[in-house]
Amino acid sequence: MEMQNPLPVPRQERRLLLIVDDDAINCAILENIFAPYYDTAAAENGWAGLQRVRERENDLCAILLDVMMPEMDGIQVLRCLKDRGVLEKVPVFLITAETSSAVIKEAYTLGVMDVISKPVIPYMVLRRVQSVVELFQARERLSNVVELQQADLLAQAKQIIELNKGMIETLAAAIEFRSEESGDHVRRIHDITEYLLTHTPLGEGLSKIEVEQIALGSIMHDVGKIAVPDAILNKPGRLTPEEFEVMKSHTVQGAKLLEQIPQLRENGAYPYARDIARHHHERWDGRGYPDGLKGDEISLAAQVVSLADVYDALSCKRVYKDAFPREKVVEMIREGQCGSFNPRLLECFFQVEGELAKLYHNPCKEE
Amino acid sequence: MDQEKMEILAAGGIDAADALDRMMGSEALLVRFLGRFLEDATYQALCQAVEAGDWEKALMASHTLKGMCGNLSMTELYDLFTRQVALLRAGQPAEAAALMPAIEAAYGRAADAIGRLTAV
């Protein structure tokens, strides 16, 4: 796994201090105090101040604001800054000779950081501004770190999900290989299941996540075949009744196998996977196995995978048969030669079968 | 800043030590700002506004002068303008206008001190 860079690349630190005051002497005094620590800029009234904020918003580390100014007073400026969302990123200080408690209260309500009275006392104004600027910078650094860590965690979670899916596919493919089929079978079952649940009314009421979980579960429908001996699994001729009983047991064995994986039991796909493994050979007319479920007793997921499995088996060459042409496949399914299915399921299936057939453009050449 | 200059400014109602602190110890900056205070037309604007009975303009001017005097530690004038601004805000223009003779005298003393300072 690739090592993640533990430290974020630091964003260019904000270090511009804007002074908005119509009193030139006061501006000069403040610039003189702060110049050793920050870049400074001055604006002689509220309008000019807002202009500077627009130009240099991302460089600002603090704004020192006078209240009584021509053109636009400090409170109006504060309101505009609040509306622009600047106050969350840049601390604003009122530097004022204004002592009216109503004005000071309004300023604090709007979100000013501190109110410092004029004439200023240098060490005091310097310390109060610096403390808050450092706090904002630390907070921004921290939020950058948190953001990057979150992105890391998401990437790792995605990787784990991919790995899970990969392992499940590998397991399923290994079983398919045993029966001399390729891993493409399980991948197509996954895709057909997902397609039917996403592009037909069958999936109504299912969330995107549930569809994904059912599709993932479909991959494991035949895991129980691991318990079926090679001689039976790969027998080209007809199975004896005893052999067929063993073959049929792959449904129950599959469900049992899945039950024994504790990590899988905690996964959202587990209930679907177990149900599909056990019931993908049930029939709508009740003559399937292992439980002889009938009609809607069979879950939708198991019904869909069952049809997908038949469709794929007919469309490809197997040890016991050749691949059938598409028209023949559709005819056999329609006429119920390969099992009995829910009529609504068949209707939806035939609606999109043209799309599903595209999965077989290179018709199972590897099989 | 030497003792002589400090005393000249003190006679003009200016607390030079306090002002120098605000200038981070820069005498040049203080002298420049004191000069600018004399050139500034706000004081004349205040006199005219009071004479004309334009109290809104008077308030703006008095407020500006208060700020300047505060920054330059011109304590006498600062106290006077602080009182004048408060009276104008409180809607007592007659009382605010009555401060003008005291302001004029203090302004004269300050201007005189600043003039002598630059001559030293």
Structural overview:
The complex is a heterodimer of chains A (367) and B (120). With 367 residues, chain A is α/β, with parallel strands linked by helices. Chain A has two domains: 16-148, Response regulator (Rossmann fold, 3-Layer(aba) Sandwich); 179-360, Orthogonal Bundle (Hypothetical protein af1432). In chain A, 55% of the residues lie in helices and 7% in strands. Chain A is built from 15 helices and five strands. In chain A, strands 2-1-3-4-5 form a five-stranded parallel beta sheet, sandwiched between helices. In chain A, helix 12 (270-279) crosses helix 13 (300-315). The longest helix of chain A has 57 residues, at 122-178. Chain A is rod-shaped and about 105 Å long. The relative contact order of chain A is 0.07. Chain B is mainly α. Chain B has one domain. Chain B contains eight helices and no strands. Chain B has helices spanning 3-11, 16-22, 27-39, 42-52, 55-71, 75-89, 93-97, 100-119. Chain A binds chain B through residues 22-26, 28-29, 32-33, 68, 70, 97, 100, 118-122, and chain B through 21-24, 26, 29, 33, 36-37, 60, 63-64, 66-68, 70-73, 78, 89.
Main traits of this protein?
heterodimer; A: 367 residues; alpha/beta; Rossmann fold; Hypothetical protein af1432; 2 domains; five-stranded parallel beta sheet; 15 helices; 5 strands; 55% helix; rod-shaped; disordered N terminus; B: 120 residues; mainly alpha; 8 helices; 81% helix
Q: Provide the structure class of chain B.
A: mainly alpha
Tell how many strands the DSSP assignment of chain B holds.
0
Oligomer: heterodimer
Structural class of chain A: alpha/beta
Can you summarize this structure?
The complex is a heterodimer of chains A (367) and B (120). Chain A is an alpha/beta fold and 367 residues long.
